[in-house]
Amino acid sequence: MKKVSIIIGAVSLSIFMMFFYGATQESPKIVFVDVNRITQEYPKMVELNERYKADFQYYQNKLNELTKELENMQKSGASQTDIEKKQNEILTRRQQYEQLLQNEYQPKMQETLNEIADKIDKYAKMMGYDYIMNKQMLVYGDDAYDITDQLVKFLKAQ
Fold it and tell me: Which stretches are annotated as coiled coil (predicted)?
């Protein structure tokens, strides 16, 4: 019987401490954002995507020219060896162009994403947020805690 009363006392004390400690602690400020929208609307990222699309189109046009040359070769009855060489040239160029684009734009994209993350960190500290969650990772989030619009405005103003 004495053991039961000790256990009940310990549980009661634990519950009391949880409520007392919980009442004295301020709840963390947790909000969420749509990271995809933030990156899509960030001015530097918009500019980077436009340059990427232009460069991609430039290389695509070059590949289209090579493909037309291949089609003309096939129509004119070029040898199978020459046709295969042209096909290999097209494949090689495609790989080279993809590598060029990746080498140029991947570091720039990463740098821009790091810049966005730094600015989000700055905004969180400025606003007193303890956590800013990615909306895509949430099962549910009340729209009242979605600060995407405010963060987009902040990032555009920077």
Answer: 49-103
